[in-house]
Write a structure and sequence with these properties.
Helix 2 (19-26) crosses helix 5 (91-97). This protein is globular. It is built from 14 helices and no strands. The chain has 322 residues and is an all-alpha fold. It has one domain (3-287). The two termini are 26 Å apart. Helices cover 69% and strands 0% of the residues.
Length: 322
């Protein structure tokens, strides 16, 4: 990987590890619906002009139905559920639990709930990985979650399912479209959906400065800047390597939660995180090449054999952007 690739990779790992902290700060004073509205409205306001200037909105109208479905599943649903979960759970625990997104994606693929590729069929290594990852989730839930917080865990689970299904919609119906255009319009759709309820749930008094800056940070850095950097990362290192940030984000969330919010770090936390990451790698890792010598699904395709390199096609892997 080039020096620029490493810098982009580390930047994305940090940028998408920060939202858990900012969400936790924000939902202490404002509703999750208002948080989603503020983040998506400002994020779309920043990204749409860039998408228009680059001509990345062409062709979106014809794909309006899957575009709306993607906005609901990848942004509107999970971002609300994350806010709901973090009203009860710590930011670090939420981030660690979401490290299980690749496991959820694997289960959905193996069960036939979403399309499965030939190189993703369950074998002994993948089944062992799934069991190891689930043991990590069980360790976190069993030792770190109180009985009154189980509803929040369910919300995190719903978020994980959304993040596993969203890329499937992207790959099947939106892969031919520019990624920046799809994300920009999806943010706008979500903002329009949450405008009535978000405004209705606005507090009578203006939130504190830390909450305002948390919303601004989520919109500007963790949404607008994040997607611009992510597409640059894909162009630099390819889609397969880019998805490795999935394993870095939870570690950043854990470090920030412990260092800034004084959240607990226990032996169960360390063990659960390690098991989830190890299980995710085992359960989702694909061989470098398929049986016929062609690149395995999700691996970078050499430029000489690539006719169209769509941003959407590149991000059609379960990368959770909190």
């Amino acid at each position: 990987m080039s020096r620029r690739g490493w810098l982009l990779f580390l930047a994305m790992g940090v940028i998408w590890g920060v939202p858990y902290l900012l969400i936790k700060v924000a939902v202490d004073e404002i509703s999750p619906s208002l948080l989603v509205l503020g983040r998506t409205a400002l994020g779309s306001a920043l990204l749409l002009p860039i998408a228009v200037a680059r001509g990345h909105l062409r062709g979106l109208r014809a794909a309006w139905l899957p575009l709306v479905a993607f906005a609901l599943v990848e942004i509107a649903g999970p971002w609300l559920l994350l806010g709901v979960a973090e009203q009860r759970l710590s930011s670090s625990l939420t981030g660690l639990l979401l490290a299980a997104v690749p496991l959820v994606a694997a289960v959905l693929a193996w069960s036939g709930a979403v399309p499965n590729r030939a190189d993703e069929q369950p074998d002994l290594r993948r089944v062992v990985g799934l069991l190891v990852g689930l043991a990590g989730v069980a360790a976190l839930v069993g030792f770190e979650v109180g009985s009154g917080d189980l509803g929040a865990v369910v919300a995190v689970g719903g978020t994980a399912v959304c993040y596993a299904v969203g890329p499937v919609i992207l790959a099947r119906w939106l892969a031919h479209l520019p990624g920046l255009g799809v994300i920009s319009v999806s943010l706008l759709i979500t903002a329009l959906i949450y405008a009535p309820i978000g405004v209705a749930q606005a507090p009578e008094q203006w939130p504190s400065a830390k909450v305002v800056w948390s919303v601004v940070g989520l919109a500007v850095v963790c949404t607008a800047l994040a997607f611009v950097v992510f597409f640059e990362l894909i162009a630099e290192v390819g889609p397969s390597r880019a998805t490795v940030i999935t394993y870095l984000n939870p570690a950043v969330a854990l470090l920030l939660g412990v260092a800034i919010l004084d959240e607990a770090f226990t032996v169960a936390t360390a063990a659960g995180f390690t098991l989830i990451l190890a299980g995710s790698v085992l359960a989702t890792r694909r061989s470098a090449t398929a049986a016929d010598g062609t690149p395995a699904a999700g691996e970078p395709v050499p430029a000489s054999r690539r006719s169209v390199d769509s941003d959407c096609e590149a991000v059609a892997s379960p990368v959770a952007e909190p």
